[in-house]
Amino acid sequence: MGLDARGYIAIAEIVLYAPIILVVIPVLFRNGFSKKAGWVYLLLLSIFRIVGGVTHVMYETQSNPSKTLLTIFTVTESAGLSQLLVATSGFLSTVVQHSLDKHTHVKYGLLALELLGTGALLLIVVGGTKAGNAKTQDELNQAATFRHIGIIVFALLYLAVAGLVAYLWAHRQDILKYRRKLLLGIACALPFLGVRVLYGVLSAFAPATAGLDAAGHPTALHPTSFLTKFSTATGSWALFLFMDFAMEYAVVLTYTVVGVRTPLARDLDAERRGDYVATPTVAVGSFSARRGYGGQEDLKASGGYSHQTGGFAP
């Protein structure tokens, strides 16, 4: 057997996600291995994509591939979306550290996002496992039901994440300086993430092109629904390349670049030094510049260095 278009995309996944692992690991050591930090899930996503790519290539190149290979790359393909969404939730937890995380509604909102992501992942894994081990059409239908519920939870999780990002953006003056940069990165990634989630929903509800007859033997199906082209297995490879692979990688690349370029530890160093204080923001124009000074001494003496701006006002 030879590789089809999806097989070549799987090779691209292996090639492109391997460097992500090499970049994310140092960021993990720098920012900590806490699951709430988001970097752990980004690393898991990269591993999922490489494992899924390898097993997909093996499945297409073997003359008599096992069902196990099919199950592995099917589950990792679906479960990767969970890692991306939960990673986003984790980054939001980092954004609110030492500021809005003291608010009860923010703290419990983030906990709800984590639970939604974990629940959706379990549903997807159960659905994929049941589909791989199905012996009857009823078992296949049951697996599809788990997959449908899981992807709906994913969609709800995305909407909740988008809502929380909007809330934090409206209160960004209360967030520490470098964590605001992380929030900006998340906001920039949201449109790409939305397209990825949309493709996940459409592909989950795409009708199957294969089933099982009364004796449990595989049989071909010929659905006519427009959703057929969104099937990750037999649908349009161009749609998969653009709405799934490219959008997901754009999100991962955005998070990786922001993680490398944003020194989050400086926020904590500044807080330990007492640079971030809850004082009103005072406009620079309200101070008269003195010859030989840059105005910073006046601002410090008058409380112009504020928590709201994370630096000298404004």
What's the SSE blueprint?
Layout: H1 5-31, H2 39-61, H3 67-95, H4 104-133, H5 137-170, H6 177-204, E1 210-212, E2 218-220, H7 237-261, H8 265-273, H9 296-301, E3 305-306, E4 311-312
Antiparallel strand pairs: 1-2, 3-4
- Going by helix content, strand content and strand pairing, the class is mainly alpha
| Helix content bin | 55-70%
Output mean pLDDT: 79
Number of strands: 4
The arrangement of helices and strands along the chain is: HHHHHHEEHHHEE
Helix segment tally? 9
Distance between the terminal alpha carbons, to the nearest Å?
64 Å
* Low-confidence runs: 275-314
Cα-based radius of gyration, to the nearest Å: 24 Å
**Strand order, largest beta sheet:** 1-2
> What oligomeric arrangement do these chains adopt?
single chain
Shape: globular
Q: How much of the polypeptide forms β-strand, as a percent range?
A: under 5%
Q: Largest sheet, if any?
A: 2 strands, antiparallel
Structural overview:
The protein is mainly α. Helices cover about 65% and strands about 5% of the residues. It has 9 helices and 4 strands. A two-stranded antiparallel ribbon has the order 1-2. Strands 3-4 form a two-stranded antiparallel ribbon. Strand 1 and strand 2 form a beta hairpin. The longest helix is centred in the middle third of the chain and has 34 residues. The radius of gyration is 24 Å and the shape is globular. The termini are far apart. About 35% of the residues are buried.
